[in-house]
Design a protein that fits this description.
By secondary structure, the chain is α/β, with parallel strands linked by helices. Helices cover 30% and strands 25% of the residues. It starts with a strand and ends in a 7-residue tail after the last helix.
Length: 452
Amino acid sequence: MKIIIVGAGEVGFHIAQKLSEENQEVFLIEKDAEKIKRITEELDVQAILGSGTSPVMLKTAGIKDADMLVAATDSDEVNLIACLLARHLNHYILKVARVRNPEYLKETDLFSGDLLAVDQIINPVSVMVETVLNLISVPGAADVINFVGGRVKLIGIVVKPGSPAAGRQLLSFQDMEGKILVGAIVRGDQVFIPHGQDTIQANDLVYLVARTDEIPLGKDVFGYQEKEIRRVMIVGAGMTGAALAAALDQTKLHVKIIDKDPQRCAILADTLERVIVINGDGTDRNLLQEENIADTDFMVSITGDEESNVIISLLGKGLGARKCITRINKLSYIPLVSAIGIDTVISSRLSAIRAILQYIRKGKVISVAPLKGEHAEAIEAEALETSDVVNLPLAKVKFPKGAIVGAVVRGEEIIIPRGDTVILPKDRLIIFALQNVVPKLEKLLTVKLDFF
């Protein structure tokens, strides 16, 4: 595919990096010369110095024969105008826009075919809020991703030393067959799709796919029991922190939000009913202790400063918070943060990549979720009538090594598959795949040419 990206900030840069790694033809437009220099030094993409709202620049990038435009600058207005121009210059191009202003997001007709005709909105704020709410819904999980409207959950669990699962081969989990499937294992910086002979080790991050009602079984098998979440502390009342507080304001949880800006706190105090708003510095040890950080179940460090988020999370963890979630956007920080003991990272970059991958994948792909380290994906796709995955037992389907079907959704029925499970046309599949086998997987999911 030929893809034009407008904006080389943190989100635009990493989208370009991801697409370049997949051998897509990428053109990136950016008006900051320093960012263009970084792009040309680090990525194999065509970088153009200029504005994404310039018809001349868009034409220079080849807008007329491009397949997709991704507008990912920090300005909603620039992104929307770029999409409007793209529609004018190429009626068939797919348009993806990063939009953060909630006032725009409420005007759903704005993005319809009659006006901007934006195909996909990237709203990192809503995705990050959803991520935190998912983690709260499954205490103890390192990662939670919903598929099929939440009926199927992908749960990442860190196997603690002494867990009954540590040291066991997957073949030994016979009581899980047909109920829960281990789809991927992250060990250090390596991700692999396991087979029955593989052994789970302590400190592995294991991804389970399960029906929502089978989650308690997964907890029992992996030997972790977490207390119910009651108290949440949010540090940072920016756009994301305020949105998270508003979402939690509708729950029965005891929630506090801390921010240094008195004006921002005053606005939140007027709009929130149950959440306690505190004007203060989240890096102040005494303040955290006064607010009973030791009794906090979830601490969410979500300020606009990554370094502060790391410090706040480490401080909260040291003072007794059960779990800390940290907002990090820089790719280089994520391995470091995990290594120093912070529980979970949320990232606007990951949410942006997730939003556009479904348009790049061949076949009828519904959603794509990059897993830890982005070396593997969980793909939700529909089985097409003439693809090579249907009407055969899974054991006979030529899935590439490094891919596995984790769940089959057939109407209201959710099937955790075995080797004799047969996929039917229009089944919805949850598939785990290593990044390097995705092209082979796409061939399986795509309609055969002889169908035409």
